[in-house]
Fold this sequence. Notes:
Blueprint: H1 37-45, H2 53-63, E1 68-71, H3 78-96, E2 104-107, H4 111-124, E3 134-136, H5 143-150, E4 156-159, H6 161-169, E5 180-183, H7 186-189, H8 195-204, E6 210-215, H9 220-229, E7 234-238, E8 247-254, H10 257-269, E9 276-281, H11 284-296, E10 302-304, H12 310-321, E11 327-331, E12 355-358, E13 401-406, H13 413-420, E14 429-436, H14 456-469, E15 474-476, H15 481-484, H16 488-497, H17 500-527, H18 606-609
Helix pairs in contact: 2-3, 3-4, 6-8, 11-17, 12-17, 13-14
Amino acid sequence: MSKRKLDEKDEPTPTAAPQPTSNGASEVSFADLGLDARLVQAVAKQNYEKPTLVQRTAIPLALDGKDVLARAKTGSGKTAAYVLPLLHFILSRKKMDPTSFTSALILVPTRELADQVFKVVEQLSAFCAKDVQAAKLTDKVSDAVQRSILSNNPDIVISTPARVWKCIESSALSVDRLTHLVLDEADLVLSYGYDEDLQNVAKSIPKGVQAMLMSATLTAEVGTLKSVFCRNPKVLDLQERDAEGEGVRQFVVKCGEDEKFLLVYVIIKLQLIKGKCIIFVADVDRCYRLKLFFEQFGIRSCILNSELPVNSRIHVVEEFNKNVYDIIIASDENEVLGDEDQPADDVPNGNVSEAIVQGDNGERMTEKDDAHQDVRAKKKRKTVKRDREYGVSRGIDFRNVACVLNFDLPTSAKSYTHRIGRTARAGQTGMALSFCVPKELYRKHTPTSVETAENDEKVLARIIKQQAKQGKEVKPWNFDMKQVEAFRYRMNDALRAVTKVAIREARTRELRQELLKSEKLKRHFEENPSEMHNLIRHDGELRVARTQAHLKHVPEYLLPKEGKKSLTSGDIGFVPFRKEGKKTRGHKKGKSRGRPFKVGGRKGDPLRTFKARRKTK
């Protein structure tokens, strides 16, 4: 399936946006959308107060039988926007024909997203579970087990394109009576190399299937899929203005390669950023280098990368969302590229709080980005097979993320947009902080260097340009390096302990441990399907590097007298996840909470309070 770029003649002419009800769009309820009463009840149980823009716009069109191509930002409720119409159609059909057959197919690019969509289907069908059966094909099970699952003729099948085509080809899955097809994160599906699988699926499904394509961007890939699966679709370009105090505040720090480790140590250890944090790095080795570096200072973190088994990856995300873990170090090997000359994320002119409904011919499309990669000869070594269906920078619903830290800058502005979409979801506030290596500092510290950093300045210029078109600003976050320098020798001590041998051993050991954990998780969930909780932790220390106990505590003589905020010029970088000014338990007005800035110390000096008694005869 070839990717194409739309020419100027394909430009759409926007038609009128859907008009709100007489009561105003903000007062539209799920019951007003004409959904089955059991679905409205399930929505209420999930505490959805009112439909989001994409839900109140796309659901009526889907219920009317139209093909829909919707673009909406991350965290806007796209999953429920297509799951609810699917469930409504299945329930309506079964009133007349109770026969079970696969009538809906949901295709997603990654296993993590498949698991997430499956859970949403379960939640929204809670009051009609006997009438709706869903199956997920992304679990690693034998062909016989998978055939047994599909033999029950589930109403909804959720899968990646490669896995579903394998089942269709082997006759394990019948799509002869398919009525609905959904492509979630449609702009990513082709990027993950599913071209041939999608072409085969398109040939095997009946003509006239209603299609819904959901995406955060409109790209050439989406245009290609639209031409293959859709019939005169309604194109919804939905943009909502962030409310005051909401959205992502974006900052960048220009620093040397070794200074990345210095600054992240100061930021995390001194809690310049509060709340849960996702740290994106360039590759798998980088994950373990940073994790071992953190361990030197007693900072707990867990890892997500394509080498780890899918059960462990899903469990890490679940525990992170339950606030078990605060820091995830994620490698972004399958990052999304895009054409930087013609950004796909242009915000339409006019009132961005309204929906722009376009006709069949059009959306702004771009072609694939030619990311410049410096190819260097490397020693051959055995590598662990990576999961091509892995992806964390898009689609996964990480909840309550206070900060996205781009430890290694992505190679495209589009990938940057997808990364920072992990924070400030569903009307919350958040922060994105990126480290950028200037050209003159590239390769100045070889042990901590990565090849992608060579183009950091070019990529940053594209990021700033793209964000400016959306009315957003990427501000510099300036550190007072004179005060930060006091921590450099501790950073160097920790880095010297994290050798290549230590990284290799940590990588092997972690993979071995996670394989064992994954099997335990699998057995646990099979025996306890309703209990998505386990005592297995993923943020334990690897302890393969030389540890230095003295690094775990910050001595007071290193701390600035003015407090931790003096480490930065101004207060622009300090973005707490929760709103300031709220009283905490035990805090009484007028009473001091104690010393405002102290890390790892004791309340008193034991030598001053020690009293020796004279030995009496």
